[in-house]
């Protein structure tokens, strides 16, 4: 029967189809470029719309001052206004009604050259009433400071309820603490010509106790003086917020020095002004607002350009900066900031339409793309899983070699050969040692060190073992020992003649190596005896010798061939103790060092004192009897060495 030769396709063929998919994406990108070209037209229309919004805002800001300007025009030449008249209640109620209707107006004040003063204020909050020390039902207050012929200052207070009816009055000794002539609204306006206005820079008002500005003008009465209308920065910000909500834009009013006079984010500005200092654009900690100051010099009176600015999160904003002529005494500017996505709503609709066309094309190609990617990804995922098993020294599963991609097929073959080689290599080199090198990314090099080791030596009856010459039963015993040593955090070191040696505290550090060695020995004895009874084995289980002490451990050999092992007195004593266990009929013989190190958790019995070593020194041989079962934590330290 003729066998057909299988030819795996190159990965380049699969990448070709991937490039075909990229071409599809490129077509969608070209469609997006067409959308950007159309967006330029829409952007120009948005520019004109935003410019018109800025002009309307400038007109509305002028209207914001209209109540204060109207009041100043009416009172500047009214002989009954302020302290010059008889404090007509009808005039006072008219002022209160205006303050109640226009919340941006904080208080209306009169100041005179002799230091006398009158202030009509609205008590809108509990904080205002606490400052004025008024009754809870008070809603308006009038503060008057008079100066008599002896220049004695007398302060009087009158409080009104919601119906503008006087409910309380009194005098207070505050007159010497305030002089209107030192206020910024008085100093500038007293030098103006009649009929002209002055707008002050922001300063801290008396009531409410927050930043505000004043619009003032000189009085034409015989006493002279100045009348002023106070309005807060927060009130101006509330006004701007209302305009911003109508137009879906953010409005900021600032002067040529970058000081913020009003902001549509009124609550945030109120918190920032709570420190008692003016707020600048740079203090808002946002590159968007910091960029507005740079646009001041680029703000023409006609053909106002629209700018694209970037915020903190990378979001783009459209901004317009317009000069505010005639609103304040110093030159001010209003900035309108809007999210570009809101301005480009029509562009966004076009974008979604084109995106839908592109997504539909991609959806048609998705099954093919998935099929191609799966053909390449599935064998690679299986290889990664197999490599992980090899890294963990798990060699039970085979590596499939079924990919139709030539490069992946060669990779499968190479990894399968590496698995076979490492599986055979792991039979000669202790797995804990190799895992230690892999986990710590170490390169084996020749070198040794002194370590405190626990050594377990398992020795078969030499005469009986030689007679059967490593029967399958003996191999079962050693397999049991290897499993118990590995589970007990130890390492099988070597197999010599009829003995096997295991080490603890190398290459991994353990806190109680003698205890781990004792536990592994007891478990191995139980498992071996159960096996021997079940199989009626001709070779009895090995006897064990345990010792604990300092030994030399490390990589012995040359640069091209190393052996990781240990040498020293503990290994020789462990072998001798294993032979003594055979001679004395013990399962596990331990040295005095082991009995002392593990006495807290294991029970030992002194079996004999015999000569050991090349000099024949007398050494105590202990039998490891059992593990101590401790019922309470307070009895953990009561384990002892039982005498013979």
Explained architecture:
The chain is 42% helix and 25% strand. It has 644 residues and is α+β, with helices and mostly antiparallel strands. It has helices spanning 11-64, 66-76, 89-101, 126-132, 184-189, 233-247, 266-272, 287-294, 340-343, 345-391, 406-426, 431-439, 462-468, 472-487, 513-535, 569-584, 592-597; strands at 105-111, 117-122, 140-147, 153-160, 166-172, 198-199, 203-204, 211-218, 226-232, 250-255, 260-263, 307-310, 316-324, 332-339, 447-459, 491-496, 499-504, 543-558, 561-567, 588-590, 602-612, 617-627, 641-642. The strands form 3 sheets. Strands 1, 2, 3, 4, 5, 6, 7, 8 and 9 form a 9-stranded antiparallel sheet that branches. It contains 17 helices and 23 strands. The longest helix is centred in the first third of the chain and has 54 residues, at 11-64.
Notable traits:
644 residues; alpha+beta; 9-stranded antiparallel β-sheet; 9-stranded mixed β-sheet
Q: What's the N-to-C terminus distance?
A: 80 Å
| Biggest pleated sheet | 9 strands, antiparallel
Radius of gyration: 48 Å
β-sheet strand percentage:
25-35%
Mean pLDDT: 77
What ranges have pLDDT less than 50 throughout 5 or more consecutive residues?
Answer: 464-470, 631-644
Q: Classify the secondary structure makeup into a structural class.
A: alpha+beta
Large-scale geometry = elongated
Number of strands: 23
- Range of helix content: 40-55%
**What is the tally of helical segments?**
17
